[in-house]
Amino acid sequence: MSAAEEAPVPLTVENAVEIAVHELPRYVGLGSLAKVELGIRVEEVFPPRGEQTAWRITLSHLVAGTEKPKHPALAAFDGTFRTPPPLERVYRVFEIDALTGEILRMRLRDDP
Known about the structure:
- This protein has three helices and four strands.
- It is α+β, with helices and mostly antiparallel strands.
- It has one domain.
- It is elongated.
């Protein structure tokens, strides 16, 4: 078997995580990793097993929270005590082909 005909080497966990982190901004709708808010974390990593041929990697990152409606009596204090809504953690699950490194799918995960 020549070098060109050798079977492809499966991705290591480090490679698979690196691909997911690198591609995260594209799926968030931003141009570069620098524009994603701080706080990117690797939450879960599931290696390919049996029939499954993809790494499943869950990443989380922080985004600006949404302001919740206030009681009308509390709305009077907005000018004095206004604070931005807290950051919220968003979870994204990437499935990455273990041989090619191609991202097969990305989905949002509702809860931690």
